[in-house]
Amino acid sequence: MPTPRLVLRRPDDWHVHLRDGAMLAAVLPFTARQFGRAIIMPNLKPPAATAADAAAYRDRILAALPAGVEFTPLMTAYLTDATDPDDLAAGAAAGIFTAAKLYPANATTNSAHGVTDLNRIARVLERMAEIGLPLLIHGEVTDGNVDIFDREAVFIDRTLAPLLERHPTLRVVLEHATTQEAVDFVRAHADSGRVGATITAHHLLINRSHIFQGGIRPHLYCLPIAKREKHRRALVEAAISGEGPFFLGTDTAPHPVTAKESACGCAGCFTAATALELYAEAFEEAGALDKLEAFASLNGPRFYGLPVSEEQVVLERSGTVVLDLVTLPDGDAVLPFRSGEKLSWRFMGAV
User: Which of 60, 20, 4 is nearest to 319 (CA)?
Assistant: First the structure.
């Protein structure tokens, strides 16, 4: 008989884009409803690059929270070629920074200020290793000669492996892993306890063919882009394994519909509206609902050295229909992943 109800320790989202201003106010309630904590991406315009920037952004997030909702934003530093190691260390010591984010310059949304050469931030990486501040990596090369579907695998060989050799105590999270190569790399370093990977719900549920099913589907376009079916299967196998280095990170990334459905559409899938329902669907399809709590609620806190939540939440098999649109004050809207579709699970809140 199918499981009618799931009870989990309240999960955390270890990779989320909340944006700012009106978009922040529109999307934050979805993440805060399901997750107790979230690693907040700093790729704003301008980016949250200093401790002062991150503290101010944290204040704006807390001010935008719905009344009575408890939620902890965990802030990250946007690394640039000019990042000051002392500011980074001071921000970590003050409890402002939980991690620092490496965007290779021009790799994805709002990454123009990202790092152009790892040698330029060698002192920053040394300081991070010294103080135990994790490095979160958007793992793609930006070399135009490398096919977009190969950019993660090439990054792992060309950049990530040498980086770990140069900094043998640096703790690293390969964000939004999308390939068999990423899974294999993380597993090869599992014994060190210093390499982790987040996996999104959409990369568990779609492969690259879905983007072109019946025409171009711009709301399934994200970076790193979805890969072949063999890679999706590798991600599912890693997520349901229960292994400590793999944990939940939605990479929910809202854009207005007009920005997605344009001549040069933005990358990102907005999954926050039904994040846990989507993960439950992927785990159920794999016959591994009993492994969801480890992936969603236990592995991430342990990697970051944070306490596991004592609160419990419930998912029920009553089903839910994904919102058609999330409206914005300017009349535009955000289209959720699987907009208008029926999902098997419904998030019911705390026990």
Answer: 4
Q: How far is residue 141's CA from residue 150's CA, in Å, rounded to a whole number?
A: 9
Per-residue pLDDT in tens (0 to 9) along the chain, 351 residues: 678 999 999 999 999 999 999 999 999 999 999 999 999 999 999 999 999 999 999 999 999 999 999 999 999 999 999 999 999 999 999 999 999 999 988 777 767 789 999 999 999 999 999 999 999 999 999 999 999 999 999 999 999 999 999 999 999 999 999 999 999 999 999 999 999 999 999 999 999 999 999 999 999 999 999 999 999 999 999 999 999 999 999 999 999 999 999 999 999 999 999 999 999 999 999 999 999 999 999 999 999 999 999 999 999 999 999 999 999 999 999 999 999 999 999 999 999
Identify whether 81 is a catalytic site residue.
no
H-type alpha helices, 65-200: 85-93, 122-131, 151-155, 161-166, 180-188
Give the C-alpha separation, 305 to 234, whole Å: 27
The class that CATH gives domain 11-308 is alpha beta
DSSP string, 208-248: GGGGGTTS--GGG--SSPP--HHHHHHHHHHHTT--TTEEE
**pTM over 0.85, yes/no:** yes
Q: Sketch the domain layout of the chain as residue ranges.
A: 11-308
With tokens 């709301």, the residue in question is 219
What residues contact residue 19 under an 8 Å CB cut-off, 6+ apart? 27, 44, 254
Q: Which one from 251, 290, 324, 330 is the annotated catalytic residue?
A: 251
DSSP structure string for 266-320: PP----GGGHHHHHHHHHHHTT-GGGHHIIIIIHHHHHHT-PPP--EEEEETT-E
Give dist(CA 80, CA 49) in Å, integer.
7
CA distance 38 to 29: 12
